Amino acid sequence: MEYLRKLKKNYYFWLLLTLLLAAFLRFYQLGNIPSGFLNDEANKGYDVYSLLATGKDQWVSFLPLINLRGFGDYPPLVYHYLSIIPVLLFGLNEFSIRFISAIAGISSVFLIYLLGKKIFNEKVGVFSALSLAIFPWAIGLSRVAMEANIAITLFLGALIFGLKNRETKRIRNLIISTFFLALTIYTYSAFILFAPIVFIVIIIDNSYKNKIKLKKVLIPLLIFLLLITPI
Q1: pTM of the entire structure?
Q2: Domain limits of the chain?
């Protein structure tokens, strides 16, 4: 009984089980469920394989730096470049194209634990992670090649480091938060409008909480502007 009581309060144990559950729900039969390539996945696969084989996308653009042409929707390119690794390892198939999305989904489960723990406590963190791990929408999103999945992971990372800076008052954490937030723009188009607003909120919050001097605010501001300028 004493062992069970200790196990009940061992949040790291429950977090590990939650992550294993999240991994199972996202990786089980990943190449077969959903069956076959979706249109967007097939287009991604073609671009990824073309970049891997020739350094050019399907429209013969050499190593594009901002986005791809795709079907005319000009998707951001982070997902495509990251997918080169699993395609190189596993070949061009449904599993390799969805691999990065599944990894991002599992990472989000861990990051939501950290966020819940930081804002509330470990118990809330584990419960939040479990909720996301078994949430049907999150599972479905992680089992198809969706750029939004990586953007959510990066966004959670930005929030965590932004909150961490409130406690540590180390500009390094604010810079990391800025980097993650800027990177979301290169991952999912909706963040072009959303990321700058969140960045301003994080800067104002940290400035008010920690009374950061202007010159320290300018560093992440310049980094953010520099990173998003090509957009």
Answers
A1: 0.91
A2: 10-145, 146-231
